Amino acid sequence: MRNTAKITAAVLTAGALTLGLTACGSDQDAASDTSGPLVVAATPVPHAEVLTYVKDHLAEKAGLDLEVKEFTDYVTPNTATEDGSVTANYFQTEPYLEDFNKKNGTHLVSVASVHLEPLGLYSEKTDKADGLKDGATIAVPNDTVTEARALQLLAANGLITLKDGAGTSATTADITANPKNLKFKELEAAQTPRSLKDVDAAVINGNYALEADLKPAEDALVLESPENNPNVNLLVVKEGSEDDPRVKKLADLLTSDEVRKFIEDTYDGSVIPSF
User: What is the pLDDT of residues 184-198, one digit of tens each?
Assistant: First the structure.
């Protein structure tokens, strides 16, 4: 069993985004105390699993006291890192991080690139992307960056065409051709696997696919290519914590040969080391 503290998405209902940016002094003091354990926020799969492997097999020898806190959403880990409740997080991509900082005035920076989770299109109604019926409904994540990434995936596989220049902020308004008259249902990313019974297909983040017992390398109708893919998952801290010796130790461990082997052996191509 993992030795972690699990925080559910219900935290958001308490106004995590607002409250998280105005943390109490004790949290800030805890984050600045480099003599204590390094507390890292992570989504459960694969991030907390990778961190737990580090904690159980590598951290003690490296002199690192590591504590892992699990979150099930994509907002609270960043607000907790910004307010000092945790020192680091491990769950997000560079485009998502940049967008989050811009929209929320946070000061978060990457210290290591660890792995890629290819985004995939899944369905319980068809086993081929071109088997989607006319007028089919596809669920997509509703955050700006991941929705754009989902649309780019569909475009790369010929299901839609996006206007030139549509990038990490692409929306359905940027669709210039839609030969199957696809409809789109925007959902919080964590909800997309649960939508599969209600829609014709869903674009699902790799971590949520794994949590739903999907095997991206086997079950996805189409999957992002890892080649030149900017959506690698990062170890992130608040600006100013990059030189924390505990953070440096964790960054080294997360990009070690041991972790590479753990990722390759555990996830069989559904999670790909990026170092």
Answer: 999 999 999 999 999
